[in-house]
Amino acid sequence: MLSTEKVEWWKAIVSSINDGILVIDHEGIVRLINPEYTRITGVREEEIIGKPLHQLRPGAKLPNTLKDGKCRVGVYRKEGNREYVVDMAPIILEGEIIGAVSVCKSLTEVHKLTHELKKKKQKIEQLQRAIDSLYQAKYTFDQIIGKEGGLKQTIQIAERAAETDLPVLIMGESGTGKELFAQAIHNRSNRRKRPFIPVNCAAIPPALLESELFGYEEGSFTHAKKGGKIGLFELANNGTIFLDEVGDMPFELQAKLLRVLQEQKIRRVGGMEEKEINIRIIAATNRDLEQLVFKKLFRQDLFYRLNVIRIEIPPLRERKEDIPKLIKTFLRSSLRNILIGEEVMKFLQLYDWPGNVRELKNAIDYAVCMAEGGEIQLCHLPKWISELEVEPKQTNRTLREVIEEAERKLIRETLNRFGNGIEEKKKAAQALGISLATLYNKIKKYHIDPNEDRF
Ligand SMILES: Nc1ncnc2c1ncn2[C@@H]1O[C@H](COP(=O)(O)OP(=O)(O)O)[C@@H](O)[C@H]1O
Ligand SMILES: [Mg+2]
């Protein structure tokens, strides 16, 4: 027999085990249970110790183990509303069965957790659907004007691109419809029900771009949010990410983007784990990427990766045949019954539209707003269009007006040349011989909007 001290010692060990334990001796008398056994089965020590097991638990299989010496694993038991599984084994000493032990695990908790997990899963699915519907692209190929005209070939290429998952690079001046094409491609592809996530690489401060794109883990930097933050790549999973103004992406970040493209894996800032993602990339830029590669401002390897299907959208001045149809469409969407005179129509076709379709759309919206009668006249167009570019009426204009118009034009051209990022604006200001603050003031004064009007 064991000494009392040893028995206490063994009892303490058994008590500390996280599974329910019950021990019977060779006669089937219960000798020991632990608190976890009581918790799982509801049977207390004083009810059972010293009594034959089969008396208190008629369904118990442990006495069988005593007889045949066989282990039993994962036996399911249900007593009232308590469910548990039991493993059973004989206790053998010097070749003889001197007792048997059962080890029980509660199923009630497993069920509870399974139920909770199911609820959480449903919630996640709901949220995923909400994300998908929140980030839908709204434009389709039907809305792109120019199919029969100047965009015929461009649209053909884009439609082919939509049938694949290949990276697309859209090049074109500001306002030519790059985002419109990106959305149309996504909406035609079989990712159409999943998110379309636009990211303007020029508008997010370079220091934030990485964490915006990749997300971050909790505590990865001073102002990091609790619980971390999901990145745009993760948000775009199974959908399309539209990297607008990709030419303005900081050089160091380009290497990370390349890695995502190559491996289709991301790692959050400050995170250890890599996550597989499945995204389609459409990039766009109004800058000459080849020139940037040549100047070592854009990584060549990334350029080749993005430049798989290349879509070049010609500026509006090179496809003036599309202008009348664009104007008619914009007029129709204004929901006001307004006509446009032949003369104005011709005039609008002469203008060069440095801001492309966006500028044309804004000019029509403006004219619709200004036209009091049912027809748009020359005088209803924005001044800088009606007066400067096509028919310079030098006679009755003040010196100030002429200077302001020239100033506006030069600023626009310079911004088009350098780009829209903060660094580029600094360079533009330098080229113009003015401070960055003055440049910003003038951009505001002349309503120059080189950044996109988001959909
Ligand atoms: N071919 C086109 N047909 C109809 N609308 C167009 C076309 N191209 C551009 N637009 C309109 O012009 C505006 C600017 O287009 P956007 O795609 O934002 O240009 P980008 O991204 O190249 O600066 C949007 O309102 C867009 O709907
Ligand atoms: Mg754009």
From TrEMBL:
Entry keyword Nucleotide-binding: yes
Name this protein carries in UniProt: PAS domain S-box-containing protein
Domain of life (superkingdom): Bacteria
Keywords from the UniProt entry: ATP-binding, Coiled coil, DNA-binding, Nucleotide-binding, Transcription, Transcription regulation
InterPro entries referenced in this protein's UniProt entry, alphabetically: AAA+_ATPase, AAA_lid_NorR, Homeodomain-like_sf, HTH_Fis, P-loop_NTPase, PAS, PAS-like_dom_sf, PAS_fold
Coiled-coil intervals: 110-137
The keyword Coiled coil appears for this protein: yes
A Pfam cross-reference name: HTH_8
The species this protein was found in: Planifilum fimeticola
Gene Ontology process terms (BP): regulation of DNA-templated transcription
Domain spans labelled Sigma-54 factor interaction: 144-369
Domain named PAS: residues: 6-51
Annotated GO MF terms: ATP binding; sequence-specific DNA binding
NCBIfam families, per the entry: sensory_box
